[in-house]
Design brief:
Blueprint (H helix, E strand, L loop, with lengths): L2 H14 L3 E6 L4 E9 L5 E10 L7 E10 L4 E7 L5 H8 L8
Antiparallel strand pairs: 1-2, 1-5, 2-3, 3-4
Length: about 100
């Protein structure tokens, strides 16, 4: 990775801080919280996190977790929850970067 691409990736990550994210874990759990940190190993730290689950007795269950660390190896996918006015700006941010010409 070039220094420019590292700076670009850092800036993209910085713009996602404090956004509400939904992380799907490899074991099927879904954790939603405010993104407060992405470390060097790409682990996610979420604050005010909740775990969503579904059982026969409680099909829309939710459990309060507080602050959690989601290891990169356990994260299957991550989605940013956006307000309508944020969709355009953040959508452009999440697009793959085009390679430099020349």
């Amino acid at each position: 990775m070039t220094e420019r691409s590292v700076d670009c990736a850092t800036e993209k990550a910085r713009r996602l801080l404090h956004k509400r994210v939904q992380v799907h874990i490899v074991d099927g759990r879904v954790i939603t919280g405010n993104l407060s940190c992405i470390d060097k190993q790409q682990n996610l730290v979420l604050q005010h996190a909740t775990q969503s689950y579904s059982t026969i007795n409680d099909p829309n269950g939710e459990r309060q977790l507080g602050t959690v660390i989601v290891p990169k190896q356990q994260s299957k996918s991550c989605h940013v929850e956006l307000m309508p006015q944020e969709r355009g700006a953040i959508g452009k941010l999440l697009q793959p970067e085009e390679p430099p010409v020349g």
